[in-house]
Amino acid sequence: MSTRSAPGVTTSSSCGADRRGLSKQPGIFDPGDEMIRRISPTLFAIFLLASPVAAQEVAGAPHDPVAAKAEGDRILAEGRAADVFDNITEDGVTRLRHKASGMICIFDAAARGNVVRIYPQSRMTPNRGDDVSCGSTLMGATFTIYATRYQVMPSEAQDMASSVAGIRDNWSNVQPLTGAFGVASVEGRPTPLFAAFKGRHPYGWDASTFIILTHIDGWSFKTRASGPVADADTIALTAGLMSVSSIPPPKN
């Protein structure tokens, strides 16, 4: 993936893991842990996927705008989500906007597994559309972006701890993943929390997995990406690009 300058967008390097590892007590977040921390900006910038040129560069060859629009309609129909998302596709990249949060889901129209999901209402998410996600498969990796509006919003640390606990509960042989991972952040927005692991996926394959999480205007936005350990750097960078291009800026 090429990198070029774009004002206000930075990547950060996430190097190594705390030798202590994560807290041994499930679901407890340790703010001092090196594997879950605020991502610091560095000196170079990257294109946002929100840019049509950048999105096509990441996703591959440009697609027919009519086909991209049709793919958006198909995704919404399959997910029964037309009342929760708008199809805002205008070029060869499929874009769906979550009406309530403003999150924009970006899809390669030719990718496998393009999907939106509306999760069942619950005590914590009482309204339809309070808990949604968009997912796709690219480069042999799965990418999912969640938008959730909780009735009582947890702190970012609590939210991340719950996500990490979910990985530990469902994956096996989970270990902190070390590496110099470039993750995108945007000037003027909260810097997200980041976590990286490797382990045995519930479907039985060894994989790397990443969490990027931030809270904006009463919404929890979480990006999850999982794929081959050998491609961890590319997966982390792609997840970061997707995150900053999909999550709306703060209103204030």
Major β-sheet profile: 8 strands, antiparallel
- Mean pLDDT across all residues, rounded? 78
| Strand composition percent | 25-35%
In one word, what is the shape? globular
What is the CA–CA distance across the termini?
Answer: 33 Å
Tell me the total number of β-strands: 13
Structurally, the number of domains stands at 1
Give the class from helix and strand content and strand pairing: alpha+beta
Helix content: 10-25%
Which radius of gyration do the C-alpha atoms yield?
A: 17 Å
Listing every helix as H and every strand as E from the N terminus to the C terminus, the arrangement reads EEHHEEEEEEHEEEEEH
Unreliable stretches:
1-61
Total helix count?
4
Keywords for this entry:
single chain, 252 residues, eight-stranded antiparallel sheet, 4 helices, disordered N terminus
Question: Your description of this structure?
Answer:
There is one protein chain. The chain has 252 residues and is an alpha+beta fold. It has one domain. The chain contains 4 helices and 13 strands. Strands 2, 6, 7, 8, 9, 11, 12 and 13 form an 8-stranded antiparallel beta sheet that branches. A 3-stranded antiparallel beta sheet has the order 3-4-5. The protein starts with 8 loop residues before the first strand and ends in a 6-residue tail after the last helix.
